[in-house]
Amino acid sequence: MDGETAPPLCFWVRGSWPLGEALERSVAVVGARAATGYGQHVATELGYGLAERDWTVVSGGAFGIDAAAHRGALTAGGLTVAVLACGVDRPYPMGNTALFDRIADTGLLVSEWPPGAEPLRPRFLIRNRVIAGGTLGTVVVEASARSGATQTARRAIYTGRVAMVVPGPVTSAMSVGAHELLREFPKARLVTGVAHVLEEVGRIGADLAPLSRGPQRPTDALDDDARSLLEALPRRGAMGVDRLAGRAGVDVRTALRKLSLLEELSMVVRRDDGYALAPPATPRRGT
Question: What is the pTM of this model?
């Protein structure tokens, strides 16, 4: 997997899914144990959205972001995999025992250490290479300056996987590590939701995220001349065609043609002394 740690010799698995099949379409969602409400909300939404689209959600089973991602996937009725730093018969932390039982019932608990193995500190960093290498991409939701989640993202980059980062408030200590990943690694991608994640790990041309657009306005469909005439009209009162054409920078013939179009669109009204902006439409009262 990298130059620091040898690859696993084997895996112990608790659950009924074949490991290769479970990881074939998988995304890791990792982050801080001391997650904020914002981070837990985002991780839950990612876990739910990915599972709803038949992607396996992989994480480490820890408190905070990991647990939120697992729970989101379980709520969606999807598949989730917890990669442990101890034996699959003694999941850690103990506070997540009920969560691990739910994962084992419908997904998988995975470890490269034999049953009975203790959750020693170095094993958490070692197991991160399995999370990074066994998935198509890793999403870091929240991470402090010194975080195992950022190490997982680095391992993903080193092994040719996609590393993704959810931005957070610049005032939060749980955003420091995540933002530093974006600064340090040009290959790391900023994502804000499931659509962005799928665009990075999905099929080329088939999983593109929709472009973010503002609200559509009636003037968006106008050409430059019509828009110039509309903007040249006074907020109050009317203006003659000759003067209006001069203010808009178009010839009189073009002005007459475009003003007729604007009148049809109910954007201007014709008066005896020229053209004026149409009054705003008033909503009809219900009967």
Answer: 0.73
